[in-house]
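Below is a filled-in request sheet from our internal design queue. Each sheet records the structural input a requester submitted and the sequence that came back. We keep these sheets so that new team members can see what a complete request looks like end to end.

REQUESTER: design group, bay 2
PRIORITY: normal
MODE: inverse folding
CHAIN LENGTH: 194
BACKBONE (tokenized):
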């Protein structure tokens, strides 16, 4: 009993004078379906342009449908079904690229932005598709969208026991960080205990 009381008193004393920080004491895992629910609001995205083909200048249009993010170990992959029409000849393809996710220092929220995405523009010559160029569509997705980061700011009261007085601790999340654990985007933070 005396040994237990001694350790409880020592722990209380240490916590009274020192802020303790550990790596990712708290984590929130966002499944990629949550991110995809948000990015689906952007669809459809459209664009058009011209290119010089084998038979002169040609006009093309494209529509991105069903945009989605896939959480990979190295980050976020962007994928969208794409309908393309080149000089009146339609075909379907897939736009692929990457997106970034980072904590905005000013707002404390997660900014997710499609950093790069493209599809292959192809031209049909006598039934054969010829790759002309890659079309960058990342600008069509627009500005980053934001996701709130849950915050922690709690007070914990440890009741008095025997000779030990009651203690009040404040738990706060430090600066959050982002990691990727497919299919989850993980927002973690160390806890500061005061």
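RETURNED SEQUENCE:
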């Amino acid at each position: 009993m005396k040994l237990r009381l001694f350790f409880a008193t020592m722990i209380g004393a240490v916590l009274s004078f020192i802020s303790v920080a550990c790596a990712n004491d708290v984590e929130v895992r966002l499944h990629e379906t949550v991110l995809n629910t948000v990015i689906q609001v952007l669809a459809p995205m459209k664009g058009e342009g011209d290119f010089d083909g084998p038979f002169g200048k040609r006009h093309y249009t494209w529509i991105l449908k069903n945009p989605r993010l896939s959480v990979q170990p190295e980050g976020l992959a962007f994928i969208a079904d794409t309908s393309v029409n080149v000089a009146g000849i339609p075909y379907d393809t897939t736009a692929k690229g990457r997106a970034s996710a980072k904590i905005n220092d000013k707002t404390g929220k997660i900014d997710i932005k499609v950093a790069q995405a493209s599809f292959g523009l192809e031209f049909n010559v006598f039934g054969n598709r010829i790759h002309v160029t890659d079309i960058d569509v990342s600008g069509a997705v627009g500005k980053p969208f934001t996701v709130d980061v849950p915050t922690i700011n709690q007070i914990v009261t440890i009741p008095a026991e025997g000779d030990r007085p009651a203690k009040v601790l404040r738990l706060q999340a430090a600066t959050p960080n982002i990691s990727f654990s497919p299919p989850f985007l993980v927002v973690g933070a160390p806890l500061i205990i005061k």
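SHEET NOTES:
- Residues 1-22 have pLDDT under 50 and may be disordered.
- The first helix runs from residue 2 to 17.
FILED BY: M.R.
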